[in-house]
Write a structure and sequence with these properties.
Elements lengths: L4 H14 L5 H13 L3 H7 L6 H15 L4 H5 L1 E4 L2 E4 L9 H14 L7 E6 L5 H9 L4 E6 L3 H14 L2 H5 L1 E4 L11 E6 L6 H5 L20 H9 L4 E10 L5 H11 L4 E6 L5 E7 L1
Parallel strand pairs: 3-4, 3-6, 4-5, 6-7
Antiparallel strand pairs: 1-2, 7-9, 8-9
Helix pairs in contact: 1-2, 1-4, 2-4, 6-7, 11-12
Length: about 290
């Protein structure tokens, strides 16, 4: 006798919970929806139905891989961000909800810059979550450059740009594989970055991050190697009216705020906190 979908998800939830997941039921539901090609509503209506044998086999395989530590986003190959479904692979960092706050801040600022066109650069673009979202959701006169040094990650950005942007938006979106802003003199109206900012101790103490690319996480001894370099490159690359937004670890907010104040003396520098109340982004507006 075949198991019902409820039986499968309930059993998987227990096993995933015992492996240490903070969201075992959600993990199990997302994995089954992926296998069966169901949306949330359809899954709810089908919970009492018997699961198909081919779905059972594929689901069990994904559950085993989840228990082994692989993130759900990598297992299903996508992650929702700003209402858009982004392709993700183990070559890119999985987009986080807290980064949506940086995008929301940026979208609000874009409307106040009063320039045409608006030139935006996302440094360390990863999956393209920030850059593609700004292009898709920002004003029609926004031109976005996404800089990402990893060739594999740039392939993911290209895929997301192709799948999520209209033809017109795609003409205003560019991908480059350079070292921060070294090869890009600007000038830019807005600079955004979610660069690697974790320390070796933080990485060692968080095994949940083991599946994600170290290049996208490790920021050196104090986590700020790349952030310092980027801030040092800002002079001469910003327009008189500009905005800068950087994602950071909560312990780094004072240091990064001081660096931005010293580098852009005429800017108002402030902190954006995440939904947990932690300092998460340092932003500057001139």
């Amino acid at each position: 006798m075949l198991a019902t979908i409820t039986d499968l998800i309930t059993g998987a939830t227990v096993r995933i919970r015992d492996s240490g997941s903070a969201s075992p039921r959600l993990d199990a539901e997302v994995l089954f929806r992926h296998v069966a090609g169901l949306d949330r509503t359809t899954l709810f209506l089908a919970l009492r139905d018997n699961a198909r044998e081919d779905h059972i086999a594929r689901f069990h395989d994904l559950v085993e891989r989840r228990i082994a530590g692989q993130p759900v986003a990598y297992l299903v190959g996508k992650r929702e961000f700003m209402g858009l479904s982004f392709a993700v692979t183990p070559d890119v960092l999985i987009p986080r909800p807290e980064t949506e706050l940086l995008v929301e801040w940026a979208l609000t600022r874009l409307g106040t810059l009063g320039v045409d066109p608006i030139n935006v650069v996302d440094v360390g673009a990863g999956s393209g979550a920030i850059a593609v979202s700004i292009t898709a959701l920002g004003p029609v006169n926004t031109r976005v450059l996404g800089i990402e040094p990893s060739p594999s990650a740039r392939e993911v950005i290209e895929r997301n740009a192709t799948e999520l942007l209209t033809d017109d938006q795609r003409t205003r979106f560019t991908i480059a594989g350079d070292d921060l802003l070294s090869d890009h003199p600007g000038p830019f109206n807005m600079v955004l970055a979610n660069l690697p900012y974790l320390t070796p101790e933080q990485l060692a103490g968080n095994p949940d991050l083991a599946a994600e690319p170290r290049l996208a996480l490790s920021g050196g001894a104090d986590g700020l190697d790349l952030v310092r370099r980027l801030i040092a490159q800002l002079p001469g690359r910003l327009t008189d009216t500009c905005a800068v937004g950087l994602e950071i670890d909560t312990s780094q907010s004072d240091t990064v705020a001081t660096l931005l104040k010293e580098t852009i003396p005429n800017a108002d520098v402030s902190i954006v906190r995440d939904l947990a109340g932690h300092d998460r982004h340092v932003v500057a507006v001139a």
